[in-house]
Amino acid sequence: MTLSIEFLGHSGLLLDDGTHRVLIDPFLTGNPLATRKPGDLSPTAIAITHGHGDHMGDAAAIAKASGATVYSCFEIYEYLGEQGLEKLEPGNPGGKIEAPWGWVAFTQAFHSSSLEGRYLGQPCGVVVHLGGVTVYHLGDTGIFGDMALLGEIYKPDIAAIPVGDRFTMGPELGARAAEMIKPKVAIPIHYKTFPVLVSDISAFNPKGVEVWPMSPGERRHFGA
Ligand code: NI
Ligand code: MN
Questions:
Q1: Which numbered ligand comes closest to the C-alpha of 52?
Q2: Distance 181 CA to ligand 1 centre (A)
Q3: How far is Cα of residue 136 from the mean position of the Cα atoms in its chain?
Q4: How far is the CA of 149 from the centre of ligand 2 (A)?
C-alpha cells in the first residue's frame, strides 16, 4: 500500500495511488494560499464534504474539465446535476460507495451546508480508501464523541482534521479528535487561510499520533 498526499491549502487534498487521483474539497479560486490552478488537476474522482464555497469551490469546473466522478451528499448531487454534471455518486452519512479504485464513505459532521442561501444537505466527513490506504477527511466539524467509533470502524491511516477554530474545532479540540480517531497520521487543515482562522496551531499535539503539518503544495508519501 502506498499513497501520495498533496495538501492544496485550506481543506484541499489530492490523493494519488499512481493510477487514480482522488481530490477532496478543491478550493483553489479565491484561496490566498492555493498553489495549484483548477486546470492543473485531472482527478479520477472528487469528493465534497459540504456545500460551503471554501470546500465545494472549484469542484464543478474541475469535474467538467476532467470528467471526474463527483461523490457528495444527496442535495449536492442534485445541485451539481442542475449544473450539467452527469458523473455523480450521491451518498449520505453511514453509507459506503464502491468505486472502481476503492471506496468512499460519508460520516456525520457537526456544521452547516449551504450555498448562496440554498440548503445543501447534511455536512459530512468523507472516508476515502485508495491505494490500500484509508484517509478520513473530517470536513468542517465540531468535536463529537462518536469520532472514537468512526476511528474503530474505518481504522484510518490518515485523518485530516480542521483546527482553525471559530467555524470548526481549534487546535486543542482537534488534538482531542485525533486522540479519539487514533489514525497513524494527522494532517491539520482549515487554518491560516483567512485572518478569522487561527495561524498558530502549536497546540495541535495529539498524544500517540504523528502530525504532518503540511504547507500548501507539499506532497508526502504514506506506506512503502
Ligand atoms: Ni464550512
Ligand atoms: Mn470551511
A1: 1
A2: 21
A3: 7
A4: 24
Ligand 2 centroid–CA 8 distance in Å is 14
Distance 224 CA to ligand 2 centre (A): 32
Amino acid present at 184? K
What is the 181 CA–ligand 2 centroid distance (Å)? 20
Q: Where are the beta strands (DSSP E) in 59-191?
A: 69-73, 88-91, 96-99, 102-108, 114-115, 118-119, 124-130, 133-137, 158-162, 185-189
pTM for the complete prediction?
0.98
Model pLDDT for residues 108-161, shown as the tens digit of each residue? 999 999 999 999 999 999 999 999 999 999 999 999 999 999 999 999 999 999
* 158 φ, ψ (degrees, to nearest 5): -130, 135
Domain boundaries, the chain: 2-214
Q: Give the CATH class of 2-214.
A: alpha beta
